[in-house]
Amino acid sequence: MNENETTKFVKEVAGNLIRSTAKSVQQNLESAIDGVMGWLRCWGEKQKILQEKYLEDFKKRVSTKISDVPQEDLVEPSVSIVGPIVEACKYYYEDTHYQEMFSELLASACDQRHVHAIHPSFVEILKQLAPLDAKLLSMFKHHGTYALCDVQEIHRDGLITPYTQSLFDFKDKQGEFTLEEHLGLTSSLDNLARLGVVMKNRDIIELSYNYDAFQNHFMYKSYLSTKNIDSTFKILKARIELTDFGRRLGCVVFLK
Fold first, then answer.
1. What class has domain 134-254?
2. pTM of the full predicted structure?
3. DSSP code for 1
């Protein structure tokens, strides 16, 4: 091998060592996940078997999502993102809902097209999302805003009784939620608002939307069945939308 060939060979080897590949990224992440999960292996034989199964499922999810990242966009993820995620896996590895969110965030952390949108707090936010919270957040991949209203009962003496459940209209996706889920949406919205990712906007309502249509909502009708005969209903108009911070979280986890 002459000098030029030797130089070329060294450069190629060096390039292979520092160039991120799907295989190298996946192997590094799997090693990190295995390492942090090791403490659970002494927690009973049955739990050990379950933990190993869930762990393999999680690694497969991560591997599949990383393999979808174009080679030219693949980068080694930041330790500030990988570390908290694999640490969270100690406690959240059993639930596929958390597996899906964490694997999406890990894949985004390996994709230079999304790295700029990732905030270190995303891991802590994902840990605080129940399945219904995540489902509500995912609805914004279909539409940017949704109409919402709150109902108040105005009594003859002027006293006001607010109903605690908000009414949602998900446009052409109305059937995405079960009856039980509809009853939990207000709490989910409260949690997402608390985390700063979704807001209820009363100043700017849904454009060209007929809020009287909420009178046909099944929850509105249930309120009617309990209202006093001499009282009236007042509809408080609003819409829900992502905050800027919520859009950043959405684009790397929920809105792909």
1. alpha beta
2. 0.79
3. -
